[in-house]
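Thread: quick sanity check before group meeting

JM: Hey all, I'm pulling together slides for Thursday and realized we never actually wrote out the predicted structure for the chain we discussed last week. Dropping the sequence here so it's in one place. If anyone has concerns about the input, flag it before I start.
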Amino acid sequence: MKKLLIILFILTSAMSMKAQKPELIEAKDEVINQASMELNQAMTSPEGALYKFGQKYHITGEYTLQLTIRNKGQVVSVFVADKKDGNIPSQNSLKDKIMDFQFGFKMPKNKDYKFSYTFKF
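JM (edit): ok, ran it. Output follows.
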């Protein structure tokens, strides 16, 4: 009986750990759509992480950034494509914050996906 309970506990733990793994997305369009949705969510007030960041550091303007992501949703490069009504210190703070941003999905190994996203503060 004790062995059965231990086995049941191990199986339950393994199933819950599997459920916590990020989803694997392989198609480029799906990766870009999911990444854009997560950034949209992060930019929504009042609970979005990027929205709160913008409020805390008084970031204003509109910044179009080119992002490159890979592997487990890590941002590996950020380039400024365009900015409107913004300033360099805000732009640099935003770039640093985006470099630390972690997406909630993973992609095939050794594949990079580039896309543009416009951040409006």
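AS: nice. Residues 3-9 have pLDDT under 50 and may be disordered. DSSP finds four helices and five strands in the chain.
JM: adding both to the slides.
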